[in-house]
Amino acid sequence: MESRLYSIADIAQELQCSKAYIYKLLTKYKKELKSYKRTIKGVAYLSIDGFNFIESKLKHNIDDEKKEKINIESDPQQELINHLQEEVKYLREQLQEQTDIKKREQLLRMKESQNKILMQQQIGEIETKLTNWRKR
């Protein structure tokens, strides 16, 4: 039996994934990997059996993700549901925009009517002053 030890970097390179993901698997399966793990001068190594364990878990995770993706993609009802959910989200955004526009329009109308009232008051005051000035 081979007694080769694999560093985390070796495992990551061999399995084409990140070292962080390998560390995540080491933490997740700490108990199962305990007998396969060796630490030499502060560097963690796994035996060939530990490497095979990590490889099997990695393939298992990838297979599960592929199956889930295939199930979602191949289910026409799920596709329709997803499409309708996106459509509802879009329509809600449009409705919110319209509501915002109407609120701004109402505010502008209110300001316009207030400005008209102020102008009429100012015109009235000016006319009163002119009348008083003419009388003098």
The helix/strand order is EHHHEEHH
The geometry reads as elongated
Q: Alpha-carbon distance between the termini?
A: 122 Å
Strands, count: 3
Low-confidence spans: pLDDT under 50, at least 5 residues? none
Question: In what range is the share of β-strand residues?
Answer: 5-15%
Strand order of the largest sheet: 1-3-2
**How many structural domains in the coordinates?**
2
| Cα gyration radius (Å) | 37 Å
Count of helical regions: 5
Calculate the mean pLDDT score and round it.
85
Quaternary organization = single chain
Name the structural class: mainly alpha
Write the layout of secondary structure elements.
Layout (H helix, E strand, L loop, with lengths): L4 E3 H8 L3 H10 L1 H4 L3 E4 L2 E5 H27 L1 H60 L1
Antiparallel strand pairs: 1-3, 2-3
Helix pairs in contact: 1-2
